[in-house]
Amino acid sequence: MRAAVIESFTQPPVYREFDEPASGNTVEVVAAALHPLTRSRATGAHYSSSGILPLVPGMDAVVRDEQGRLCYALVDDDRFGTFAERTSVDPRRCIPLPEGVDAVAVAAAMNPVMASWVALRRRAPLVPGARVLVLGATGSSGSMALRVARRFGAGEVVAAGRNAERLAELDADRTVRLDELATVADVDVVIDFLWGDATAQALVDIVSNRADRSQPLTWIEIGSMAGQTSPIPSAALRACALTMVGSGLGSVSARDFVAELPEIAQAVSAGELSVPVRTVPLAEIGEVWEPSRTWRERVVFLP
């Protein structure tokens, strides 16, 4: 079969012939999205990467099983993923999709929605009426976090980012640039897709300007688009009632991720949560592997 294969952590995938998975439960891949996490694992940079080559990237997909049913599947094997004509799935991580569903739309949206959905359900359940700030709101996952937070009962959602044009397009109650976070310091929850120096400065700006530092502040770290490490000052951790948690592979069990999938898939399939999509033949993966700041869509490969 044909697949996109990572042969070097420093080079884009190569589209070529590759042996089919030897294990059972082989399915046909219908549509598979390119997520930041997928790139990170494929370069060996992510903490969940095995560091072993060659590998077929891709962590999830809409697939067709042997009975012809469309399903959404999470793939845990970081050496044989979904960027191929066929892949192997664990039935426990595979959920059926409604008849007539838009496979491309589901493939594009499930991961961006899942990031904040699982965090607010499994790591730091949202209190109704809470004020929520999303750092890195202009990305796919960040923009979905605004809508997920509102869906879960947030009283106010605030979007923060660097791109003023994209901020203006978001479905948020307020928008601020990253250098304006002092004006929204009295939030209750921060959903952080940035980390790095950006998070360190954001934490200082918010903690320093809270009207009542004894009021709880929950900081949920989900992504690291601005850096893998952050120089958090110790005073910021001591100066307010801060709880900082991470949400992702490992901090949330596979069982808990899968438990949330049916409700997420229902919302995505109904069009309640969607992201812009750019479809690309899998054979052209090398042309779109490197992220482009000019693209606003999530890339979905069609094998």
UniProtKB/TrEMBL annotation:
A single Gene Ontology MF term assigned here is:
oxidoreductase activity
Q: What is this protein called?
A: Zinc-binding alcohol dehydrogenase family protein
SUPFAM superfamilies registered for this protein in UniProt = GroES-like (SSF50129), NAD(P)-binding Rossmann-fold domains (SSF51735)
Recorded hits in Gene3D superfamilies, A to Z, give:
Medium-chain alcohol dehydrogenases, catalytic domain
* Top-level taxonomic group: Bacteria
Native organism taxonomy: Bacteria, Bacillati, Actinomycetota, Actinomycetes, Micrococcales
- Locate the Enoyl reductase (ER) domain: which residues? 4-259
Query: Quick one: signal sequence residues?
Result: none
Q: Which chain regions cross the lipid bilayer? A: none
